[in-house]
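Dear V.,

Thank you for sending over the compound details. I've combined the ligand you provided, calcium ion, with the protein sequence from our construct and run the structure prediction for the complex. I'm sharing the raw inputs here so there's no ambiguity about protonation or stereochemistry in the SMILES, which I know was a concern on your side last time.
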Amino acid sequence: MPNHYDTIICAGQKDLTPGPPHNLEKRHDRYSFKATNMAALAIVFIAALVLTGCGSRNPKPDPSLIQIQTPKPVIFDTDMAHEDMFAALFLLSHPNVDVKAITVSGTGEAHCAPGVAHVLGLVKLSGHEDIPVTCGREAPLMGNHVFPAEWRQAADDAYGVEIPVGGTPSTISAADLIVDIVQGANEKITIVAVGPLTNIAEALQKTPEISTNIKEIYIMGGALEVEGNVGNSGVGIQNKYAEWNIYIDPVAANIVFNSGVPIILVPLDATKDVPVTRNFYKALGNNLNTPAANLVYEMLTANLDFVDSGGFQFWDSLTAAIFTDESIASFQDFSVVVVEDEGSESGRTKPDSNGVNIKAAVNANRDKFEKLFITILNWEK
Ligand SMILES: [Ca+2]
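Below is the predicted structure of the protein with calcium ion bound, written out as structure tokens.
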């Protein structure tokens, strides 16, 4: 139902938005609506806007959103589901970002071998084959939480989309690569983490002193004042609170949160504001000027059922985008603990006055995000 509205109303909005009032009159004449019909239509129209949340219209590339700056060095830690690929391509395409390494979390959605292969394809596609890529351990630091096997298979298969064949991976582990990059850098490195936090926790456990040379860690994960997404995934886990990335390896999350490195969390509280919609899909379809934009479009095409389900959000892309421009979100400080014990709150990022202080995005500006995302995907470096 919402998809139907989304298609019709958002497409109709495309006709109406740029036009002067006479466009409306033309439409009325054409369809010879009576006043009562128009009133009913108006109610449906407004209801549909609310239902579909299609508040941002026709996002188009807007280069004025980008002020060129010295590129910021970043390590991207990912678990290579569809949305991870979007975030990776966003960072790889962004003129203000210098991706130093990409590490795959072996506890995440894709398994190590296909996950790394897909990253290598993306770095090739975006002209960055020199970026080192590797994977980490395939079990959480503690516990046995895993993503559903069906989801993992889909990620391993890149959802049926052909990813270019890239080069060869780094021969060292993800944790070692993180340590090497951070210790070898002549300025503080930022980490953007959009999967389970296993690799980063392992690096911090192995070499705690790297924390002083990590500027900050942007993390897609957790749910603070909204419901989590584990319990409502339809996979039979009774847990209303946890978000998947943190749920998979809560011990790792606690290590990262308590490392002393400033944490900027992008939880479901903020990502709920950036659903992936048919309207966005169509807008991107009108702006396919680079291999990156084309690949994201193909990936959305392969996942339109998920788009139409209303459950697909720009989780990882929003996190990457916030790293480049915090003005697209609003933030609050929270004191949180991550629940490590098994049970109905396992993996919860729980507000607790005895917890660790983090900064969390609580809202996102969807219109600005969508424009920025389309702009960067179409950026020619
Ligand atoms: Ca992810």
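A first observation: Strands lie at 72-78, 97-104, 133-135, 189-193, 214-220, 263-266, 329-338, 349-351, 356-364.

Warm regards,
I. M.
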